[in-house]
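Minutes, methods subgroup
Present: GH (chair), OT, SY

1. OT presented the first of two proteins processed in the latest run. Sequence and structure tokens recorded below as shown on screen.
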Amino acid sequence: MLTTELARQNHADMLADAIGTCLEVNREFVEACCSEDVRDMLFQLSDERDMSEALVNSLGDAREWGIHVAPSSVIILVGEIEVQYEGSPEEYFDDPEDWTISGDCAYLAMDSVRVAVDMDSLREEVVERLPAITERDRQTFLSGYWGCVDFTASDSEGEPIDADSRHELPAETVAEMEETATDFLQAQWIWLHSCDDLSDAGHDFHLTRNHHGAGFWDGDWKELGDRLTEASKAYGSCEVYQFDDGSLDVVS
């Protein structure tokens, strides 16, 4: 006998399996059915076929119903489900009083279906479809980064100095700083790939991680500001100081 629980589960599975096939994933679908975090990632892609593949490959196993808002989800509004049956309702349904019977069809209320999205998988799928970071991209980012490192460099009294950190710091320190900056660029490429000038991003990475009075959070990056600010601060501080003997080094 068919229970309401099983009927809803079957319908949820059917709709989930239809995403990307019978249910076309395009910009309108993403706007209407995807949670904000999923939508933000998918809209980094311009090709709707890429959007569809990235989403379908990231759908999880969790399929629920009756949920209208939830993060990391695709939510499809339903209304009601229809089941065609044979015989009497009492023989076919475990709980016929929960159904609206009309001839050989029965109807059951079902608000919506939620399909979970694996956000780590979605991020990988989206990044895989973005243009790769070029060496020119990296050097542009690093030029802004080093420019800001020099701009904020100071002496032991906290006074600004005229520094050329990239060439005056020990080679191993320069390599380590560039590795850290490059790691940030790679990790945030999903948000930075369309940046008009990556040198601005390198500049704001240094300001933000060191808690200066400007950076990703000051408004220029709009909705990305909070995300990039949080990511920057995870790297900790790293400032260049000039000691009394004139040598430069970094202080965390």
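2. SY then presented the second protein from the same run.
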Amino acid sequence: MQYVGQTGRKLKERFREHIYKIKNGRRFNSFIYRHFKLDGHDLTNLEVQIVECLTFDNTISSNFKTKARCTSEFNWIKKLQTPYPLGLNDNILHQGNISNDPSIDIFSLFDIRKRKSRSHGRRQNGNIKRKRRKSFTLQNCLHFLNTGGRHLLLSSISSLSLSQLRLLDQEADKIILRTDKFYLCAIIIQKYAKHYLHPRIQSPEEVKRYFLKIAFLNKGIDFIDINSILKDKNVVKHIPPYFKNKETPAICYSYKKPLRNLIFNYGKAVSAFPSSVND
């Protein structure tokens, strides 16, 4: 199980705070601390790892720093897929406590885009594909959940074909009572099936395009291919991770008024001449 968090303090201080609250779980009724009170859970299985470190100038306000950390945390939660019940992140940005609202589809937090049309390469015999297809029942899924946790369960059902996944989803839909031993397993299956059987695909209109406006000083700026610079791999590797999913900004130029309008009012001068000139 994974949990993603952010802090503006030293990692050592924040990690010690987590350990203290886990040991005093009765006083702190948070979701992540209740998790460690379950059977087979203790601090020997707890590990911490830094995935990103943000740096700011001294001129940046503390409010901006907090928003940047929260945005980065949300992107890492989506990338590592740690919202409850897949992970231990319960309080999600713009969603609130998702464990208190079962109507929230956690898979809707993950972005899906249409795959570009491409060649499928060498095609395999359809009969061999059908022989390799697997079929699971709720009993098999419960065994995966108890032995390997949610990650093993999700890895197993992800290998199913769409038809088999649809049948498993129909079987999980019949589980209603919370006291049923298949209840948690059925919730995970239904959320996964909803994400893949009825995905929400982003339309091109929903993808925001950003524009980088540059003052046009002279024609020499035309020889600088700024678009290729922004897409260069040596430049991209220095971009913070929470900006990598954004589209490359389009370059546009702003032109100043020509100098002749400042020293010579062309319109006024032309109107002063008679409309017809006699030779």
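Chair's summary of item 2: The chain has a mean pLDDT of 76.
Next meeting: continue with the remaining queue.
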